[in-house]
# Entry
Amino acid sequence: MRCLALLLSFVLLASCLQIDKKSVTVSGISAGAYLAGQLFTAHSKDILGAALIAGGPYYCSRGDVMNAQMQCMAQTWGAVDIQELYDKTKEYESTGQIDPTSNMKGKKVWVYSGTEDFTVATEVSKQGEEYYKHYGADVATEYSVESGHCMPTPSYGNDCGTSYDPYINRCSYSGVEHALKHIFSDIKTPARPDADSLHEFDQGRYTADPGSIFMDDTGYVYIPRRCNVTGVTCRLHVALHGCNQGKETLGDEYARHTMYTDYAEANDLVVLFPQNIKSMDMTNPAGCWDWWGYTGQHYATRAGPQMKAIWKMVQQLLGGYEL
# Structure
């Protein structure tokens, strides 16, 4: 018997969606990698693992856009003092703004940086590796693929060594595959995704005014066909696009062509694709997730506006309710 799954005014009704509450994972590229790290660190009790593609350590920018550009991307000002990041993490932990860091011990983290990525230096990603190892995470890395600043795929997108729109490159290598295989031990080979299983939903249900925190009115969620069958328990993954990869720029290209949906269909994996937007001024002109504080000083904690909105989406799906 199949569950009721209706798309009505961009609201997905999934009345019997069953998701393992201990299966939540997160990944992201570039700004999405920084937000993925923030979600994993802030909600480490409830997130099983994370994949950081072309990103760096938690709180790298220390709430300043110049730090973000000059130390957490090209390291023009040199490497960030990682002890400062540990100290801030301890402060947030002691005040209850993030989960206890002990939750990260033994959890899976995958870190990727291409050899031709001159947007976010590999040394920055290596500091991300160092940060999560400090808390006992089981970290795996890949630094040898000759890719630019991109999501690497087996056959879709630009030449592998380039770094330009849509920042999806054909590299005979799947970043999604290697990320999921590190986080989970039982990932099956990809299957042909169902075009009708990628749904739009109203992000305004999770924050009063999405545009005020640079989130699109509409997000995407992929629900594999088997996840709509009574008695099938699925897992949940949050996939965060990078700058210039949101719906207003690429439509659903990032969701459909990065291999997330292929592995989702084969592995009963619901994939949530929150969407960010660009600003008309210099606040967020490239449509990046907030990893330097443009939504306020609590951006990297559970109280961060974008963090809160996405976590509400996660909780809605875990409850088996409409998104």
